Amino acid sequence: MNDRMKWRVESGEWRVAGSQWPVDGGRRVRHSSFIIRHSSFRVHSPLSTLHSPLLRRGFTLVELLVTITIIGIVAGISLGALQMARRFAAEKKTQATIAKLDAIVMQRYESYRTRRMPITIPPNTRPAIAARLKLNALRDLMRLEMPDRWEDVVRDPLAAVNNNPLSAITTPPALQMAYRNKRNTAEAYLVNSRGMNISDAVALIGNLGGAECLYQFIAMENPSNLEQFSQNEIGDTDNDTLPEFIDGWGKPISLLRWAPGYNSSNVQPNINTQWIPTNINDPNDPIRVQRLKATMEDHDPFDSRKVDVATMDQGNPIPPPNTPPPPNTLPTGWRLVPLIYSGGPDGQYGLCDVQQYGYRGNPYETIKDQNGNFRGMGAPTGESLDFDNITNHQIEMK
Predict the structure, then answer these.
(1) How many CB atoms lie within 10 A of CB 56?
(2) Is the pLDDT of residue 30 over 60?
(3) DSSP reduced 3-state for 244
(4) Which of 37, 133, 382, 387 is most buried, by CB atoms within 10 Å?
């Protein structure tokens, strides 16, 4: 090998010492790798090593596992973010729907403060008794015109049921009759067109009574009310031809006209109504003290004369103002606001409602559960299913 064929490295590349590249058949060899004849070694440029068949062409198992793990982590983060975004959107949609329902319901509810009662007070009636007559009639009218279950719709005014002079509405109001026609039409359809027996049809209709009665009230109170709601806010989840307003998860939004047991509210007193204390006449009993304080500090605005001092059996007169509560009773008469509620993401209400309960004419009535405890309407059922509910009582807190 002469001096002109000496090899040296310049700037990281192999170069041939001399004035020209080796030639082959009169052509310059422009390959980045060539073999020197009569030599036992091969010269490669760094660029040629990328294409060498002697080098591996794939990934190791560890590299593949690391890559798959990274992809899985990124996908998990993205999926979690997507689910959170969907939940957030569903919550906002539900809050917006409940806010619209609340505005309509509360407008009607507040109107009862100045509503003229269709009753006649006998002459020479004591003022306290006259106030009781008006209050009983007002609450019965609320039940008839703002039902929270179909039992309110099919049951006539209280005076017509048990001839009670203290609830003197005798003629069903027009709204109640309109509700009743809708309910009876649905029952007839289920029996005649679907072949259901009457008992099954009644059970199906009553299953979502609170939600279906809410829809009927909104639709019939003023037909233009429905213009505020889009199609995806209304459905018939139980397929009984009676619609409901639905939340962001496609579940019915329900109504409790009175919810004295609901204790997660920022619009009415939070009262412990889940049981009646053993000695309810003890003036220092904490539950009794709590109820009396709420009654005195935030009294029912519909009871202007504050005659509603203590709960009695339905239909019996309640003592006039400043009369101590009779035995085996607890103070009542604090402010109540209709409860409009969604079950939230899990679709479970977890509240005591009225669907399987008898006549409900007293706002402060309690239900005796299977364990012998008493719970007010709207109180948690004890399974902690109400933690994610969305309601008009706490919509500003969500």
Answers:
(1) 6
(2) no
(3) strand
(4) 133
For residues 258-262, give the mean pLDDT. Answer: 91
User: In the structure encoding, which two tokens stand for residue 211, read together?
Assistant: 């939600």
Taking the CA atoms of 169, 171, 177 and 180 in sequence, report the sign of the dihedral they define.
Answer: positive
Please answer whether residues 223 and 217 qualify as being in contact, where contact means their C-beta atoms are separated by less than 8 angstroms: no
Give per-residue pLDDT as tens, 84-138: 888 889 999 999 999 999 999 999 999 999 988 878 787 888 887 888 888 888 9
Whether 143 contacts 360, CB under 8 Å: yes
Structure tokens given for 136: 């009983």
For helices 209-221 and 198-207, give the axis angle rounded to 10 degrees: 70
Cβ-contact 47, 32 below 8 angstroms: yes
pLDDT of residue 13: 44
Q: Is 67 exposed, middle or buried (0-12, 13-18, 19+ CB in 10 A)?
A: exposed
Which tens digit of pLDDT belongs to each residue from 287-344? 878 888 888 889 999 998 888 764 443 334 444 444 555 555 677 889 999 999 999 9
Residue with the two structure tokens 């019915």: 252
More confident residue, 364 or 335: 335
Q: Any bridge partners for residue 256, and if so which?
A: 339
Q: What is the DSSP string of 135-197?
A: HHHHHHHHHHHS-SSHHHHHSPPHHHHH--TTS---S--HHHHHHHHHHHHHHHHHHHTS---
Spatial distance between the Cα atoms of 83 and 369, rounded to a whole number of angstroms: 37
pLDDT at 188 over 80: yes
DSSP track, 353-395: -STT------TT-EEE-TTS-EEETT-B-SSS--TT-EETTSG
| CA distance linking residue 107 with residue 221, whole number of Å | 11
Question: What is the CA 256 to chain-centroid distance, rounded?
Answer: 13
**Torsion angle of alpha carbons 219, 222, 226, 229, nearest 10°?**
-110
Q: How many CB atoms lie within 10 A of CB 116?
A: 6
What's the Cα-to-Cα distance from 327 to each of 330, 333, 376, rounded to whole Å?
A: 9, 17, 19
Query: What type of residue sits at position 318?
Result: I
Query: pLDDT higher for 157 or 183?
Result: 183
